[in-house]
Amino acid sequence: MQSIIYGWPYIRGIVYTGAMKLKFSKYFLLLSDDTRQRSLMLLRQEGELCVCELMHAIGEIQPKISRHLAALRDAGVVISRRQGQWIYYRINPELPAWACQVLDAMVAEAAKQKPFSTDLTALAAMPDRPSAVCCA
């Protein structure tokens, strides 16, 4: 759901200034990969996740998840922060409103379909999630 706060679009608790420039073609190319789609949808639902959480939910190996997150980070779609030896990713708060709307539409539809519907279940069942204890 979108509303306006202080003149900026406000979606799911994050204020988007729209200052970031993102080409349609680049964004849709990034969204064309299943691993990137699944990662973005989990990030959109959960807010912030580390690579190990994405690995557990999606069922892929660390190098593959990291490579796809690097592509998203290089394009400015996600941002990262380091905490100790772990890197946490989240959707860039500067992502244009149109890009957020596309992502929200994907999340709404994909939540009804496999493998996306099972990703959140797998993540919720993950023991020792980093939010409680750092993972190895």
Supply the CATH architecture.
Answer: Orthogonal Bundle
CATH class term: Mainly Alpha
Roughly what fraction of the amino acids lie in strands? 15-25%
CATH superfamily: Winged helix-like DNA-binding domain superfamily/Winged helix DNA-binding domain
The CATH topology is Arc Repressor Mutant, subunit A
User: What class, by secondary structure content?
Assistant: alpha+beta
| Arithmetic mean pLDDT | 83
- The percent range for helix content is 40-55%
Strand order of the largest sheet: 1-2-3
Q: How many strand segments?
A: 6
Explain this structure to me?
The chain has 136 residues and is an alpha+beta fold. The chain has a single domain (2-124), classed as Arc Repressor Mutant, subunit A. The protein has helices at 24-30, 34-46, 51-58, 62-74, 97-110, 116-124, and strands at residues 2-5, 8-11, 14-15, 48-50, 78-83, 86-91. The strands form 2 sheets. Strands 1-2-3 form a 3-stranded antiparallel β-sheet, with no helix packed on it. The longest helix is centred in the last third of the chain and has 14 residues, at 97-110. It is globular. Residues 1-18 have low confidence and may be disordered.
Name some characteristics of this structure.
alpha+beta; three-stranded antiparallel beta sheet; 6 strands; disordered N terminus
A few lines on this structure:
With 136 residues, the chain is of the alpha+beta class.
SSE diagram, text form:
Blueprint: E1 2-5, E2 8-11, E3 14-15, H1 24-30, H2 34-46, E4 48-50, H3 51-58, H4 62-74, E5 78-83, E6 86-91, H5 97-110, H6 116-124
Antiparallel strand pairs: 1-2, 2-3, 4-6, 5-6
Helix pairs in contact: 2-5, 3-6
